[in-house]
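Risk register update: the risk that structure generation would not scale has been downgraded. Supporting records follow, first protein first.
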Amino acid sequence: MRAIVVRKTFLAKLKPSKNRRNWRPWNFDVRCIRIEAKGDRLRVVGKLLEAEFSAVVISPGVLFANYIRFYKMIAVAPEGDLLDMDMGPDGMHVGDLFVPWKDLDAALYTDPTTAPSEQ
């Protein structure tokens, strides 16, 4: 799975819809988020969060990830207007940053049609 998104938009969409002003990722009661890249859209779903927005999807897929670990990784990823997320069999690459799946507590499905809706 590989997708390119606008960094600012992606980080904003990862915040829950309620209480955005006082929001902190470690206070967000969610264990897992589902990120689906398909067509020209990226869809993010969690317990208190659901968002869909435009993305350049190079290869489709579904990623289930620990919300806090994923958010922190994206937040410290190399600066820039665009965020290039490349998920492979070994782990996730965001720019020059690499995190193996075991450290991210994540599961990758390369076919969105066969991926489960919940993990």
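Supporting record for the second protein:
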Amino acid sequence: MEDINLHKKIGLLEEKLTGKNNKIHDLELRVTKLENSLWRIANPVAAFQDDANKEGTKLDGHMALSMSDDANMLKQWANSALHS
């Protein structure tokens, strides 16, 4: 009888641990996304260059510099990161 209760308790603890590990994994993913977003906000021209490279296009340097000074755009990036 004690063995059955012990096995049940072990099973319940394993379920809790699995749930906590999943939550930790989700939080790690969230932190990574937020770090990436902060990097983009701190380095908008480099972010534009990365985007252009991924799309196989050429970056318009003048436009990138102009957009990097746009506080509203940077604010939108921050809000997007916080609400995604």
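Residues 3 and 27 are 36 Å apart (CA to CA). On this basis the risk owner (M.S.) recommends closing the item.
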